[in-house]
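Project standup — Tuesday

K.O.: blocked on the structure for the chain from last sprint. Re-posting the sequence here as requested.
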Amino acid sequence: MIDVALWCALGAATSVPCGALAQTVANEQVVIATRQRDAGDLLGASNTLERHLAHQPEDLTATRLYAQTLYWLKDVPHARESYERALARWPSDVTLRLDYGRLLVDTGDRTRAIDVLTPLLTVAGARARAEALLGSAAYWSGDLDTAERLLGDAILLQPDLGDARRQLAEIRAIGAPSLRFDANAEHDDQPLDHVVLGAAFGWHPTPSSAMGVQGGYSSYRSADSLSTSLRTASVSGSRYLPDSHMELEGMLGVANRAGATDAIGRAAAGIRLPGHVALRVRGERDVYLYTLASLRVPVTTTTATVLLALDHPRGWLGEVAAQAQRYHDANVVRTGYAWLLAPVARGGAGVLQLGYGVSAQTADSSRYVFVPAANRSVYSPYYTPKDVVVQSVLAAARLAVGPGATLRVNGSYGLHATQELPTITRFGANAAGVGGVLVRGSYHNSFSPWTARAAFEVAPSSRLTLSVTAEGAHTAFYSRGAFGMRVERRLSR
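H.V.: unblocked you, prediction finished:
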């Protein structure tokens, strides 16, 4: 590489002026770096540009190319440093602001993206692209109201903005009214059969808010023909407040079982924190129908949950939560859990995630009782865990299997799981099985829990989605399997 400063300082005999020579060298280095980058040698291009800029830091084109190449090398911190230094030196350069804005949008820094791109809204030739990037930043941060406005304005100015058109179409598809029908069947080894039919209508007053009306019918039947049914009706709503990064959600309804009506509901609030993390609190009241005894005895629960959730666009997912579930008789079951999924393979066709989870659960008091008529002990009217601790490996995958068709699978397997199981032994009963003394005890037990779920979703058109799910699980309490179908139809907005 020619040291232009040294060449000029020595006064070498040449007919080419120093300024012209410097420009020629600069152009050559940019061309070389561009060729290296186009050939896939990003590190070589970065090194070429770094050496060149050490001698000619005033080369704007090379500076832009260098910062962009660092970003392509996934060296985001140094790419940002280069862009910031360049912006301080050339604040009016349109291309520089657009390039840096793209990096900021891609990496989720909406606040700085607004600072960098807003000045371009008054530049006629750049306004459409700046609005498209700002709309994309709003889209990824969940501010769909602002995203819809900015993307729509950008497309009016420049109709060939493909990414803006796609994101605007997605927002309008999300915001369209929809009808949903569900049918699910479940069997467990108590044994208990459970069938659920449901329907829902939802609409969006704005892209960042939703309202819904839901209704359902459930039937429960045991092997000895004990049965009950449950009818539910509810209204729900949710809203995201982008200025305060707040999430609000609520549901209020009624559940009718054997002529008795109970109120059900849910209230939740959350705040989205930096780093794609959200802190959420949730309270819920519901009807409990998971044991044979609960088919005879009405059971309701009130649950409070505090959780911290990670949902990173690069595929990292995780959650840490603490939960207290209070039953109608004032007994409380306490649960804590944490899990993390990491992306190990990503591509256009799908993603594979692997992870690890741990959970602990225990009840304040047991509902394990002796039933004289059956001469055995059962959980009645609901299941109460005791010192259940599970450590599990996790896996999840999503695969595009055709146009508009997606297969999703996930599961877990307990590497180490223990619990304290209660026992009740009767001594001294007579020949008719009457009387005697009940002695309570417990023992430490190891078990192997697992879960598995597969869902196949196909969209024959932009307005219709069909999905089928199958799942199974073995837990500390029971083993279960379920099958479900869903049809969702989006209506004209």
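K.O.: great, moving the ticket to review. The chain has a mean pLDDT of 91. Residues 320 and 488 are 32 Å apart (CA to CA).
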